[in-house]
From TrEMBL:
Residues at the active site: 8 (nucleophile), 10 (proton donor)
Ligand binding (substrate): 19, 99
Name this polypeptide is given: PHOP2 phosphatase
Organism: Bombycilla garrulus (Bohemian waxwing)
Cofactor list: Mg(2+)
GO molecular function: metal ion binding; phosphatase activity
The keyword Metal-binding belongs to this UniProt entry's keyword annotation: yes
Length: 241
């Protein structure tokens, strides 16, 4: 009787996008047009690499970045939800699959003392170079045409489940909590007994309902949330059953 909770990070655990929040550290809190316009769809991580170079070139140091990142607000009710999960770790395994990066997620979770809630974090590896610049790499290579170049969340989820099975761990139900377009691929991998929890009014919810309208709905159940308290209510029901 164990449940797997899979969380996205940006606009799910935190109420902002960590990658766009870092722009507050830039001169005049904005990026030059040339840099902003250099983004190509599917290549966000490469674009963020250029943003970090720009910040480094402008003398933005690690401690300033860290101070800025740890001011990001959590989504309403999220601190309570993660506290609840932490108190029930014997029932829940909990992972993050995110297109942010290891440095940002680590800073934010540790500052709020929430890092112990999560068993594993799958995100783009980042580190500060010897010259003090933040660098970021692709999480992995994959062949999924639907996902951004650097990360297919379905592949991450599938590999995690396979590894757990080898250790003798299987899950009664997977609960996938996210908001973005790149969460659709893993949601389509979920089975009938699993549940997708898209955030109300965000891309994932819209994409799931478009699929239903085109008569190719996702296999799993769908429960929309607007506050993390909605998620907590569902999990409380789950463990009562």
């Amino acid at each position: 009787m164990k449940f797997l909770l899979v969380f996205d990070f940006d606009h799910t655990i935190i109420d902002e996008n960590s990658d766009t929040w870092i722009v507050k550290c830039a001169p005049e809190r904005k990026l030059p047009n040339g840099l902003r316009n250099s983004y190509q769809p599917g290549h966000w991580t490469d674009y963020m690499g250029r943003v970090f170079v720009y910040l480094g070139d402008n003398g933005v140091k690690e401690d300033e970045m860290k101070r800025t990142m740890t001011t990001i607000p959590f989504t309403t009710g999220m601190i309570d939800l993660l506290g609840f999960i932490g108190e029930n770790k014997e029932l829940f395994d909990c992972i993050i699959v995110s297109d942010s990066n290891t440095v940002f997620i680590d800073w934010i979770l540790k500052a709020a003392d929430l890092h112990k809630v999560f068993d594993e974090v799958f995100t783009n590896p980042a580190a500060f170079s010897s010259t003090g610049y933040l660098t970021v790499q692709h999480f992995h290579a994959h062949h999924c045409a639907k996902c951004p170049k650097n990360l297919c969340k379905r592949k991450v989820l599938k590999e995690f489940l396979d590894k757990q099975l080898e250790r003798g761990v299987s899950y009664t139900q997977i609960v996938y909590i996210g908001d973005g377009g790149n969460d659709l691929c893993p949601v389509m991998f979920l089975k009938k007994n699993d549940i997708a929890m898209p955030r109300q009014g965000y891309t994932l919810e819209k994409k799931i309902s478009q699929l239903a309208q085109s008569l190719s709905p996702v296999q799993c159940s769908v429960l929309v949330w607007s506050s993390a308290i909605d998620i907590m209510s569902y999990l409380k029901l789950l463990i009562k059953e």
